[in-house]
Amino acid sequence: xxxxxxxxxxxxxxxxxxxxxxxxxxxxxxxxxxxxxxxxxxxxxxxxxxxxxxxxxxxxxxxxxxxxxxxxxxxxxxxxxxxxxxxxxxxxxxxxxxxxxxxxxxxxxxxxxxxxxxxxxxxxxxxxxxxxxxxxxxxxxxxxxxxxxxxxxxxxxxxxxxxxxxxxxxxxxxxxxxxxxxxxxxxxxxxxxxxxxxxxxxxxxxxxxxxxxxxxxxxxxxxxxxxxxxxxxxxxxxxxxxxxxxxxxxxxxxxxxxxxxxxxxxxxxxxxxxxxxxxxxxxxxxxxxxxxxxxxxxxxxxxxxxxxxxxxxxxxxxxxxxxxxxxxxxxxxxxxxxxxxxxxxxxxxxxxxxxxxxxxxxxxxxxxxxxxxxxxxxxxxxxxxxxxxxxxxxxxxxxxxxxxxxxxxxxxxxxxxxxxxxxxxxxxxxxxxxxxxxxxxxxxxxxxxxxxxxxxxxxxxxxxxxxxxxxxxxxxxxxxxxxxxxxxxxxxxxxxxxxxxxxxxxxxxxxxxxxxxxxxxxxxxxxxxxxxxxxxxxxxxxxxxxxxxxxxxxxxxxxxxxxxxxxxxxxxxxxxxxxxxxxxxxxxxxxxxxxxxxxxxxxxxxxxxxxxxxxxxxxxxxxxxxxxxxxxxxxxxxxxxxxxxxxxxxxxxxxxxxxxxxxxxxxxxxxxxxxxxxxxxxxxxxxxxxxxxxxxxxxxxxxxxxxxxxxxxxxxxxxxxxxxxxxxxxxxxxxxxxxxxxxxxxxxxxxxxxxxxxxxxxxxxxxxxxxxxxxxxxxxxxxxxx
Length: 786
Hints:
The protein is α/β, with parallel strands linked by helices. Strands 11-12-10-13-14-9-15 form a seven-stranded parallel beta sheet, with helices on both faces. A six-stranded parallel beta sheet has the order 16-26-25-17-24-23, with helices on both faces. Helix 6 crosses helix 8 (about 190-200). The chain is globular.
């Protein structure tokens, strides 16, 4: 209370209550500093109207600055928190912003859990849960509604009115619902003038409400075609149905090879959910998957809503309201769809659950998989995690029997997995016979497939035309002035661009260091690859999918549809084409460079590489013509690439888990990463040093852990790291040392005890000194270390 009172006037309020027991208070949080919570008195005219989950306008501080906050609780004199409230010291709520709660009670509780787990203010978390389009009332407008006034209608015969005005009042009196001025004029058959005259005379009651300007149709059902399940699918479905009937939370890991029919299992399970009178949420990792997933679900269900970032604000708001009304059977969307306000939730599905895009990179830094698990627990419904390459976190939980694992080891129709061949680029470059990004074996395979009427997918996880601009005279590469990142050449725009901060410069002609006009443009991005493909295969149209070419709404769906229809024969792009897409006519897949992320300073690099190769390999061989995969790499002997070429997830997981266990990495330890940022390098370095000292001085940290860090491990005779409890790693420069004009240093806390780690994080957050121009963020359970 001391902190709260310091922000408010200390003089007694001028409107002291006559009855101290007759009060209601709203606990309010904000999405900006000060975050709260703070208490406000609910005036009499707002009682009964204000509910948790609505936003309110309140005065803050001595200057009574007006802020919009979230009401998270209504406190009464008989409530548990009544003793913490001084009603005579509280300022009143000025206005209720929302007619209805934007966050349901369930979403409020989930938001509080997210706020605590990922160390983010609750107000910020709630503004992540409720889309800005919904908060801004997109697709609605304030509309005036007219109602009859009983006092006026009682003396209708005494009023001097024109015949049209009288008919209007009589119609309004007999109407079962309020009408707009236009609706009333249309019903009476008059212009707007007579109705306006009645309003000016005060002969009708007027109320204002927000209404939708137009609707966006829910996707209609177009087919009820039956798909017969094989034995593996039937067994998987039976496991899910049994879980549904238990009416309690259960996590089921559906581990199925690519093309094993996981989506059909989801659809059959959702049909069961609908029979129970409930709805389902289906999360997919990429926007590029949403059109295909939407199409498949729309063929089987009547009312499907979509939520993803390519929707307009009006579309997103409309779908959100339809979901909240209970008129939707299936919600499909990317990460944030986990918050869809489904009133009768029956099941949550995470397709491609391993994917890193399910982790948000801004506050709150939640992981949709963890949020889905918590929401399913709170609502007592099953959570289905589907993947051909499960995350090691999910794999470990399944094998420790904290979740159920169901295997789909075969493709539908018993189609074989494609043959994967690695191409050693060291030999290709040494021979000097290969030119460009496409090796001779890959070119031959593409040529053969296209001649035979097949289609080709090429994966290159690098955007732009050239990845590096370097001077041959002095050797200097062109780096972003705000980031420690080489700038990428975009030939079509005649620019060089930083893909982290979007800094842009005109295409250079001379070196910025020495002035020499001897610049080389090295490396291959998707734009250069497209140019090479079009030059080598001019008779076969191709389409490129990356974030540069897919900016317009509907561009993903148009590109995939042109490839599905056979209008385009070659599909090339970044990782957005590697997952979940189903094209039976694809007979060759080429991974142009499997090493793009293999050697990053990140312990998950091998897992990401294995997953990416396995997933893109699964795009071929889905039809009777079979398929093959060619993986170009400078590291053909790397365990991740060897395992991926053999479709051997089990061996990869076993090897990787042993390494993670040895080095005390997730999923065997909980990690929290602190990243210190500042435009002043020395201040950032000093703050990181102080955080490291504070971390090691935490009273709960045992003496042995204080001396165990990344550079002084204790090794036993078997060369394994002995579990010495919690530890601090760093501080050190982040792999990307400068980003968006700020220098970056990081340190990592690790512990086997999650609750212990959260207390440790809170200690650092509360103890860290405030330094001008220095900020730090906390990323609990980080998914990348760059």
